[in-house]
């Protein structure tokens, strides 16, 4: 809540992410237009495979991590576990189970950003590992830990579809608007999560509610009229003048997600569609009180790994 010569998306870096230092990492400044696209980029629907999607995500989040944390850091907090723009908080929702039972649990946060959720888990005695494809996002995790005088959260830079962990390494896995919508092969991603979980482990992830793909991504009244087919799975792509993807997001229907989970060996325990809470006036991109009153903005899948 998930734009130098650098390793590929699946390659580890030799240097561990350190504290936030704008001069310490070669991320070029990228001018942004009002709608969030890089200046000159074209937005369209077209096919985009695994490698292109992964590369675009890594570069986009490296380039935009600073602005993202500046804009949303107050809402996310440094150590809150917030599932979505509707403000669903794990402390109350308990989608991973009773917080008291998290003590000593190994938990993988996928698409962690600055590891806010992992920090909340650590405060409850869990042993979290925060994984993100963006090195710059993980630098923000280090910045927060150093600024608060905390023991740093364990971080790993990797692609969520190729998890660099042994089988059965974790008790639970979670992702709050993390890597799932940016992965071209989420069937593979689900299998990878299943592989690294222990029997009975929970896999909980939040994504933009699939119905939103039928509507313009606008917070006002223009975002309330369907203009696209819900069943069109063609990815949303932003590309530069050379046709190189700079941002990619993939759509799956609710049925697609359920089938992916079941095929990977999970049992679906719950599907949470948060209502917009009374009194929340803050907009977040296409999320707003107006739209939230009429159509769901988030889907949270709560699954358990079968034995």
Short description:
With 307 residues, this protein is of the alpha/beta class.
Please characterize this protein's 3D structure:
The chain is α/β, with parallel strands linked by helices. The protein has a single domain, classed as Rossmann fold, CATH 3.40.50. Helix content is 26%, strand content 20%. It has helices at 50-76, 90-93, 116-123, 135-148, 186-196, 254-264, 289-292, and strands spanning 42-45, 106-110, 127-132, 154-157, 170-176, 197-208, 236-239, 245-249, 266-272, 298-305. Strands 4-3-2-5-6-10-9 form a seven-stranded mixed sheet, sandwiched between helices. Helix 4 (135-148) links the parallel strand 3 and strand 4. Helix 5 (186-196) packs parallel to helix 6 (254-264). The protein is globular and about 45 Å long.
Using brief descriptors, characterize the structure shown:
307 residues, alpha/beta, Rossmann fold, 7-stranded mixed sheet, 3-stranded antiparallel sheet, 7 helices, 10 strands, globular, disordered N terminus, SAM-dependent_MTases_sf, transferase, methyltransferase, Methyltransferase family protein, S-adenosylmethionine-dependent methyltransferase activity
């Amino acid at each position: 809540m998930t734009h130098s010569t650098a390793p590929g998306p699946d390659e580890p870096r030799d240097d561990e992410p350190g504290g936030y230092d704008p001069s310490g990492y070669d991320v070029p400044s990228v001018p942004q237009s009002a709608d969030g696209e890089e200046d000159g980029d074209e937005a369209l629907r077209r096919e985009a495979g695994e490698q292109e999607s992964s590369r675009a995500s890594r570069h986009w989040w490296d380039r935009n991590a600073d602005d993202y944390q500046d804009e949303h850091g107050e809402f996310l907090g440094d150590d809150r576990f917030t599932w979505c723009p509707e403000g669903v908080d794990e402390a109350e929702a308990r989608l991973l189970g009773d917080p008291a039972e998290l003590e000593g649990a190994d938990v993988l946060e996928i698409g962690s950003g600055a590891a806010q959720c992992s920090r909340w888990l650590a405060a409850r005695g869990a042993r979290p590992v925060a994984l993100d494809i963006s090195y710059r996002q993980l630098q923000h995790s280090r910045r927060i830990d150093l600024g608060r005088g905390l023991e740093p959260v364990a971080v790993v830079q990797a692609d969520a579809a190729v998890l660099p962990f042994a089988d059965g390494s974790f008790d639970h896995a979670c992702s709050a608007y993390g890597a799932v919508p940016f992965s071209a092969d989420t069937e593979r991603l689900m299998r990878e999560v299943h592989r690294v979980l222990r029997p009975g482990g929970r896999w909980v992830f939040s994504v933009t509610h699939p119905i939103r793909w039928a509507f313009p991504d606008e917070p006002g009244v223009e975002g309330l009229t369907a203009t696209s087919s819900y069943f069109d799975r063609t990815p949303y792509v932003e590309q530069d003048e050379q046709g190189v993807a700079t941002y990619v997001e993939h759509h799956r229907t609710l049925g697609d997600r359920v089938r992916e989970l079941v095929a990977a060996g999970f049992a679906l325990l719950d599907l949470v569609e948060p209502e917009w809470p009374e009194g929340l006036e803050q907009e977040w991109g296409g999320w707003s009180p107006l739209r939230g009153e009429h159509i769901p903005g988030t889907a949270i899948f709560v699954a358990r790994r079968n034995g």
